[in-house]
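Q: Start with the shorter request: fold the first protein.
A: Done. Sequence, then structure:
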Amino acid sequence: MDLLLLGLRFLSAAILYAFLTVLLVILWRDLRGAADRREATYPSARLIVLETAERVLEAGTAFVLQRVTSVGRGPGNTISIPDSFVSGHHALLSWRGSQWWVEDQGSRNGTLLNGVPVGRPTVIAAGDIVGVGRTEFKLEMDDGSRASE
């Protein structure tokens, strides 16, 4: 009798652990799928070079924005600008909460948004001018919200 009760306890524990394992796997897949869907949904946007000193970049050059886009002089950035006035990791543009944001990364010469220094993460919209070093970019979006020049 004692052996039967011990066997039932082990069986109950095994069933409980199997149930919890299946539940965790289902939750993990659901969360991962939600994150993948969220990652995939951001509008296509780009930074267009308006002007730059010493022709370090050609005016009209377009850089497609990723969900998180780093801008700086260093080669590891998404957008690399060969300008001595640009810091190694100068600015960050990111898609958060259905808006594009720009933030300065502690650069020496600062990041400008429509001529105003960016002191904290700031929302940017189509047509805004982002200044990094001696280069100015204009934000354009493919959803029809391009600002006229």
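Q: Next, the second protein, separately.
A: Sequence, then structure:
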Amino acid sequence: MSDNDIEVENLVRVYGRGAGARRAVDDISFEVRHGEFFGILGPNGAGKTTTIKVLLTTLLPTAGRVSILGHDVVRDVQRVRRRIGYVLGGDKGFYDRLTARQNMIYFCDLYEVPHRVQRTRIPQLLELTGLTARAGDKVETFSRGMKQRLHIARSLVHDPRVLILDEPTSGIDPIGAREVRDLAAGLIRLGKTVLLTTHYMQEADALCDRLVVLAKGRIVASGAPRDVKQLAGISRVTELELTGVEQRRLDALRDIEGVTSVHVDVSGIQQIVRVQSAADVDCTAAIVRALESEKVERIATREPTLEDAYVALISSQDGKA
């Protein structure tokens, strides 16, 4: 038997027909091992949501094969659904005028969890998600972060082996997001396999054992977060805070030997510039010479983050067919 809980082979999903056809997912392959925390990253329109819908059996693939725990998502729909749990971004999906406990009972009944099992499982899941004290409160009184923790509890009522988290911390305040991340990380210790989609690179870097980066429906990088950073070809990042530097001087940074990309964020007359360098040599002096040094308020060099690698990889796809 395979060690992989999820296998995606040459997945293709096309929307539309003829000249208007669009390949949302274009021949991607990856596997997720048992007990692994796996990430799918990519900008809007990259194919993340389409891939998740295929895994959830709510969308048929145009071509390729996808299986979860050895069950084909097209031929074995019911077997797949009984073995996966899912958490979608947002706070919808509950009966707000019912309590947390009543919602849990409803979803247990929906998944045909025996009542004798419910009596122990519901308290355990509410304790796991830190909601025991609020079990008797109506969900309409919950914060968005609390609702996401309840979503995770709900997704576990039928004890699935695979859990799919689709942007679970989207729109949640920092404290609530940290609580959800800590809870998600703990699922691995319960013997679960977790697949995560997220726009937050720090989240992916902290949680994921391995990940893939999608762009225009294709995988442009894969591996552990450290491997993806290396694939992006960045050795260092130089950050500068500037005031009123002319655009022509910023453009000149791209011509410095060893510089792979330059990203500028503007707020009024202040500019935040991130210069990514592939060379092992220090480009700091050349960067300062290219600018008006008196307008450089701060300069610092650091190791690249997953976000730096992600930006470089996605930017490299711009203009490609």
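Q: Describe the second briefly.
A: The mean pLDDT is 90. Residues 115-128 form the longest helix (14 residues).
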